[in-house]
Amino acid sequence: MAAFRLHCFGQSGNSYKPALMLALCGADWEPVLVDYFGGETRQAGWRDGLNEMGECPVLEHDGRTLSQSGVILDYLAEVLGQFGGRDADEKREIWRWVLFDNHKFTSYFATHRFLNALAEPRGNPDVIAFLRARTTAAFKVLDQHLATRAWTVGGRPTIADLSMAGYVFYPEAETGFDLRAEFPNIAAWADRIAALPGWQAPYDLMPSQR
Ligand SMILES: N[C@@H](CCC(=O)N[C@@H](CS)C(=O)NCC(=O)O)C(=O)O
């Protein structure tokens, strides 16, 4: 069995965040496919055994069972010694962006994508329009931040970048956003992440059923 086991599924950008971290670090890890669309995360057994919050990703390592991608990334930075903050100030700055990501950046972008392309039936057009506007506002913040720097914090790639990269590599047909046209600094930043040794796209890194 691999040292790190990541419960995930291909469509889950929240799972892609730690999957990408593990891949970039060359860690000994394996994905464990979760049948999200079949309702596995809603089953009592899954919630009791893995995550009472009913969410992917879940990481198993060294007797620990961890959830919340931000916590998992922070844990991996500590145990793998890569992509973390160099001092307390940098670590705080990283957390500031991870929290922004979880509250505004990933959450609106991912929910917009889900209602736009994955939900059956598709989402209400008014709700999708609302989410599109909220996503755009959050993306403008990062795009402006990246206008004068290559990476979000500290002049090098950190878990803050990996957190916000969760959904940017999914196809435009799913996300409904042409990042290159709308947010050029984010697109260039995504290109820099994709150029890191070990990078793979979400559907190549994680298994999926659909
Ligand atoms: N803040 C959480 C969000 C996790 C999350 O929403 N995961 C989705 C899959 S991408 C999920 O499992 N959702 C199930 C649900 O909301 O019921 C994290 O970053 O891990």
Automatic annotation (TrEMBL):
Record-linked InterPro entries: Glutathione-S-Trfase_C-like, Glutathione-S-Trfase_C_sf, Glutathione_S-Trfase, Glutathione_S-Trfase_N, GST_C, Thioredoxin-like_sf
Domain GST C-terminal: residue ranges: 87-210
Transferase as UniProt keyword: yes
Assigned EC number: 2.5.1.18
Superkingdom, taxonomy of origin: Bacteria
UniProtKB keywords: Transferase
Entry-linked Gene3D superfamilies: 1.20.1050.10, Glutaredoxin
One MF term in the entry's GO annotations: glutathione transferase activity
Domain GST N-terminal: from-to ranges: 2-84
Similarity comment: family membership: Belongs to the GST superfamily.
Name under which the protein is recorded: Glutathione S-transferase
Species for this entry: Methyloraptor flagellatus
